[in-house]
Structures are given as structure tokens and as C-alpha cells.
Amino acid sequence: MEPGITASDGSVEGQQWNVVGHTYTPKLHSENAMIWHAIIPDGTFVPPHIHPTQDEWIVMLTGNLEVEFGADVHKAGPGDTIKMPMGVAHGIFNRSGAEATCVFGVAPSRKLFDLFGKLDGVTDPEELVRISAEHEVDFLPPPDAE
After folding, report:
1. Those residues with Cβ within 8 angstroms of residue 14's Cβ, 6 or more apart along the chain or in another chain
2. Lowest CB count within 10 Å: 45, 74, 78, 146, which one?
3. Residues 118-144, mean pLDDT to the nearest whole number
4. Category of 118 on φ-ψ map: left (φ > 0), alpha (ψ -120 to 50) or beta
5. What domain range is 118 assigned to?
6. What end-to-end distance do the CA atoms of the chain give, in Å?
7. 73 part of a folded domain
8. Considering the domain boundaries, does residue 143 fall inside one?
9. What are phi and psi of 36, to 5 degrees?
10. Is 93 helix (H, G, I), strand (E, B) or coil?
11. In this structure, is residue 122 part of a structural domain?
12. pLDDT beyond 80 at 143
């Protein structure tokens, strides 16, 4: 990682991705960590999944999100930090009626930067699951498939 500042309107390597309807803008990327700004429209979500090799967290800036850990639903708003330890299944949902913004992070970064580049604009769920599995993110089957 190079020392310095990523400007509020800047990103790592000029990148910005559309992943599951969210806008992700990477702000820091090194072998040890990755941080990205996210705009999460109302009605969008990341289905339940597991990061077997990374801890993940979200710092809420605006709006509200719900994070599901199995049957447990946690609600987070501005200023809250959501903690998602490696190996623990979680899904992230915006059911608030308004856009949410937040800063995500993972440690270590592993293959996530490359994953987001490959998922940019992917809309086919099966392809999203396949590509994610190749990059150490494992989606759970839908409830009706279990």
C-alpha cells in the first residue's frame, strides 16, 4: 500500500463496481486489508454467504441495514459497526425504504478486490455464485433449495 490519501471522490486504481445493485468504490487495498465505500439502494441485498478466510465489518454512514446471521436479524443505523467474523454466514439487506451508505472492510483482503472486478455488472445468480466460490466467498443455497 502506498502512503497518502484516497480523495472522497477517488478510488483505488480508478475502480468502481456495480455488485448486486450496489455501487462499491474501493478506498484502500493491500494484502492485509480492503476498505470500500458502498451505496446500497432500498430493496437490494447480498444473499447469505460465508467468508471462510476473512473477517468483515461495515460502518454505517447513512440509512439503515439489516444483517441476518441465520434466524437472528440485527438492525444497524448511522454510526453503528456491524461485525461479521470469518466462517459465520451472514446476509445484508436494505429493507428501510431509503438508500444506505456505509464503509465495508475485510481483513485480510485475499481475493476480494479481484472478485468485485469480475462481478461488476453480473446479474445471473448462478454465475455470481460460481465466480464468488472461485474467490473464497461461498453463498448458501436458497431456503427452498435446502
Report:
1. none
2. 146
3. 92
4. alpha
5. 12-129
6. 42
7. yes
8. no
9. -140, 145
10. strand
11. yes
12. no
Asked if residues 131 and 119 have their Cβ atoms less than 8 Å apart, the reply is yes
pLDDT in tens, 87-121: 999 999 999 999 999 999 999 999 999 999 999 99
Tell me if 146 is assigned to some domain: no
Domain count along the chain: 1
CATH number for the domain harbouring residue 90:
2.60.120.10
pLDDT over 90, % of the chain: 95
C-alpha cell at 2: 502506498
Q: Which three cell numbers stand for residue 121?
A: 455488472
Rg of the chain, C-alpha, whole Å = 15
Contact 83, 128 (CB under 8 A): no
DSSP 19-81: ETTEEEEEEEE-SS-EEEEEEE-TT-EEEEEE-TT-EEEEEEEES-EEEEETTEEEEE-TT-E
Task: Give the tens place of pLDDT for each residue, 38-61.
Answer: 999 999 999 999 999 999 999 999
For residue 48, whether the previous peptide bond is cis, meaning omega lies within 30 degrees of 0, is no
